[in-house]
Amino acid sequence: MMLIPAHHFRDIERKPEYLQPEKCIPPPHPRPAGTMWFIRDGCGIACAIVTWFLVLYAEFVVLFVMLIPSRDYVYSVINGLVFNLLAFLALASHCRAMLTDPGAVPKGNATKEFIESLQLKPGQVVYKCPKCCSIKPDRAHHCSVCKRCIRKMDHHCPWVNNCVGENNQKYFVLFTMYIALISLHALIMVGFHFLHCFEEDWTNLLQAYGLTREETAEARISLHEIKQPLKVSSTECSSFSPPTTVILLILLCFEGLLFLIFTSVMFGTQVHSICTDETGIERLQRKKQRRERRGSWKSVKETFGGDFSLNWFNPFSGPCHPKPLSDRDWVRQVSSVSDTENTETTTTTTEEPSEEPKNEDFVEVVDE
Fold it and tell me: Known EC number(s) (predicted)?
């Protein structure tokens, strides 16, 4: 394979015909402003339903198995309010992450008229996505599930049935944080519940025989030797039977531990990506982009919506709205043939690692 000389390469790429714009027809019915964003993916919808079901299951066990039967009303009210508040914020963050446009590039804008309007100069190139016929701005990647190019795409998460991009990354971070918090809170309450109930049931059982713990240890009395078992009420610990209570609590422990680990890891990786101004795709592919990186604090403020305040933790408060894309955002600079080689490699890997470079419309190569 041999690359065409740089000047010839740029002359070809500046021509609108090179990108085959006749194959890119704008959508006949563009989405009106304010339309809700929703991805019709069966797997993503199922994962989102499972997420809500697991949160509601934890809500049921915490309220009806642990808090409501308890006689300590202060303990029940405080923990009930905290857990329900965190659960509400988690589900609200999930809805915002799922129903917010992550930063989709206008579909089908790689038309001849649009390319000509950019008035490309020598050394400037535009990149077309062959899958959605869009001119790709810098740091945009195509998602095969959303079928769109997403600005600053980090990854596609089936649990929120959406991509995580520049417009909804805040909501995804809040979702992982609140899920981790309610998981930790549930595990702590389950631990206290087990200790309290075992302690109380054992004490009540001994008192029913009129014995103290010391007397039981000295006499070595075996409760299994009693022919008529005593009926000791355990309604103070749960409204359900002891086997049902144990099963529900064990399932809650398993769920809480699993999601605590998973969401804590996701929260950490997302915060790291925001602070380093590097998306998950860019980090995995080790792309060495020649661009000016923002400072970590500036990147955090843009993601969470301004200076530090309680709105950072509010899923109903959006991030800083990015500036509308201008003509210069659609154009990139290629200064040499070596840049072209790097562009060919990295862009091919970004779009579809399993595909060959021949599917990329913006790379000009000829057989030797």
Answer: 2.3.1.225
Half-sphere exposure in the Cβ direction for 109 (13 Å, CA) = 19
In this predicted structure, what is the pLDDT of residue 367? 25
Coil/strand/helix, residue 134: strand
pLDDT digits (tens, 9 = 90+) for 201-249: 555 544 555 555 555 445 444 544 444 443 434 445 777 888 888 899 9
> What distance in Å separates the CA atoms of residue 238 and residue 235, rounded to the nearest whole number?
5
Query: Is residue 24 among the annotated active site residues?
Result: no
For tokens 């998306």, the residue is 279
Alpha carbon dihedral 168, 281, 284, 260, in 10-degree steps, equals 20
Tens of pLDDT, residue by residue over 343-355, are 333 333 233 333 3
Domain ranges for the chain, please list them. Answer: 35-103+162-202+238-286+294-320
Q: How far is CA 182 from CA 60, 158, 237, in A?
A: 13, 21, 21
List 3's β-bridge partners, or say none.
365
- Alpha carbon distances (Å) from 247 to 60, 65, 192, 250: 14, 11, 16, 5
Binned at pLDDT 50, 70 and 90, residue 4 comes out as very low
* From 157, 163, 197, 237, the catalytic residue: 157
Query: Going along the chain, which residue ranges are E strands?
Result: 2-3, 124-125, 128-129, 134-135, 140-143, 148-151, 155-157, 162-164, 332-333, 365-366
Residue ranges of alpha helices (H) inside 220-294 are 242-276, 280-285
Burial class (CB in 10 A: 0-12, 13-18, 19+), 171: buried
CB within 8 Å of 144: residues ≥ 6 apart: 131
